[in-house]
Amino acid sequence: MDMSRTRERLVVVGGDAAGMAAASQARRMKGPDELEIIAFERGHFSSYSACGIPYWVGGDVTDRDQLIARSPEEHRERGIDLRMRTEVTALDVAGGRVRARDLESGAEAWTSYDKLVIATGARPIRPPLPGIDAPGVHGVQTLDDGQALIDTLARTSGRRAVVVGAGYIGVEMAEALVNRGYEVTVVNRGKEPMSTLDPDMGRLVHEAMEGLGITMVNDAEVTKILTGEDGRVRAVATEDAEYPADVVVLGIGVRPETTLAQAAGLPLGDHGGLLTDQAMRIRGYENIWAGGDCVEVLDLVSGRERHIALGTHANKHGQVIGANAGGGYATFPGVVGTAVSKVCDLEIARTGLREKDARRAGLQYEKVTIESTSRSGYYPGAAPMTVKMLAERRTGRLLGVQIVGREGAGKRVDIAAVALTAGMTVEQLTALDLGYAPPFSPVWDPVQVAARKAVGAVFGRR
């Protein structure tokens, strides 16, 4: 500790979910007289929901401020010195300090720390293609990104949009642009949209997107972004075709933002994310923690490290970090890879392993797919639902579940997420005492119908 200071100092790099959850929890653990907390955020906003940006762009959320959980002023009122528009440019781990630049004035200064939290998030993938930085081409990761896209849409007279990539962000942004009256083309390098699903389930998403009037172009690699005489984007090119565009949204995915950490020599995993222990402490460093989209997490099903950029994990990481940095104790044991999304009224959910994940982990498995309904078939509003389930051969251990259907389909994946976390078999899953009434479920819940079929596949019973 710097002897010129009379209290410990916690420095947080990154002012969104993980960083400010950590700062807030640490403040609850220790008051300002015991712990000084300084947080740096290079953007204009703190503690916001990046997951809500597509719904803001599409008009479902009408006010940007609805996505902000806690403003900088609210954090400061709680005894956190949050410095906005200030970018950390270097980490001096040996010296216990960070260098930060005020983006308005350009002034730079070192700030010492006793404890450090790295919550630098993730950055949208921007492949080094000709024209990728042209006006009208947007990544969507932060509220600043969302505001820039909305400003572009307001200034653009044309109504043609191309979304590059068909993961969660790409699919959600495609729907948002349709809702704004755009003619939307999605260019996707995969066989089907939503690579987090197996292709047979992704096909159901493909059909739903085309039903919205979206043009799906699969098995296509973007080679360049074409611009007009004014320098603005005018089209997206693949090897075989050009797709006219007045605006382009990149939904290719994200990578951990670990540039500073790598330069400081901190340990990174195979996916480029920081490696931590269960207390979210960076491995080999007693007084440095990391959380959110910049870290890798343990997959409890495969036993391998993964990079999953989700606000749910970031907030939990922050709570764990804050408890530990504040002198308490908490752990984050890992994830099972649960995610849910939608295209119009089609709900898309997955948890656990896909087929290729299971093969990569060296697991032998059985797979089953069933068709069911969200409610008892005779009850008004019953909607179709497809459930795919993977179970380990011989043992029957549940490995993964994917669900695509209408209202009531998506959150059913939580049943499987709990079962995966508990290490349950498909036979145990069939015996779960789930809630039943005709407005909510058939007598056999669709997840349990799939589990019964998986029992038959694994053990030869029908």
From TrEMBL:
Sequence ranges assigned to domain Pyridine nucleotide-disulphide oxidoreductase dimerisation in this UniProt record: 341-443
Record keywords, A-Z: FAD, Flavoprotein, Oxidoreductase, Redox-active center
InterPro entries named among the record's database cross-references: FAD-bd_OxRdtase, FAD/NAD-bd_sf, FAD/NAD-binding_dom, FAD/NAD-linked_Rdtase_dimer_sf, Pyr_nucl-diS_OxRdtase_dimer
Listed cofactors: FAD
Spans through the membrane: none
Keyword Oxidoreductase found: yes
Domain of life: Bacteria
The UniProt record lists the keyword Nucleus: no
Ranges of residues in domain FAD/NAD(P)-binding: 9-315
Family of the protein in this entry: Belongs to the class-III pyridine nucleotide-disulfide oxidoreductase family.
This protein's name: FAD-dependent oxidoreductase
Source species of the chain: Streptomyces ureilyticus
